[in-house]
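Why peptidylprolyl isomerase? Reviewers of the renewal asked for a concrete example.
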Amino acid sequence: MFEKIKQSKQAQLLLVVVAGILLLGAFAISNGYANDANGNIVARVNGETVTKDDLYATMVKEQGKQALDALIAQKMIDAEAKKQNVTVTDDEIAGKLTEIEASYGGKEAFLQALSLSGLTEEQLKENIARNIRVEKLIAPQIVVTDEEMLNFFNENKEILAQEAAASGAEASTGAKNQEVPAITFEASKEKIKGILFTQKVQEQYESWLSQLYSEYKVETFLN
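Here is what the prediction returned.
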């Protein structure tokens, strides 16, 4: 279970940027191609032109529904956050960004993954802010019990101890053969609670979003 959640946390960057990839890497692409003098041709093959209209039609056919759903979800999340006075601070965004960087093993690996996603760090921060809003909006529905945390601790004690040992080794600035204290439930409680909370947010997101769809007037006109 712990490995599954660790993989899920390592995939946070992918989760946060999915909408960005779709929107920036697909629809916005029509503005990124070099155009000819009339501003409509994006490519030529043996003199045969490919126009923006051709490009847009293909993107709509292949990715339009998914990208539109992402945009609609963003609009509803932002509207719901505004209605419930949910705000996100710069410190909260920075904290999440640090967590994501750590899950990739450091800033260098993180920046490589970010580059492959097609997003800038600022665009990623915008998506992180929206994810935090989602967490805050769903949070009242989520309860993590002591029993769940204790079960998680007992099932993953060895891995938690290994992580604590690794953190201790880093903190010791290279000291060798330093004994690492045995891991305890109380010492791990907050970390476990955060892991289980994130898992439950992910599990409840789709049903929560469906509830928003039923509360908001959503009209689509994509052909």
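The chain has one domain: 2-215. This is the kind of structural detail the renewal will allow us to pursue systematically.
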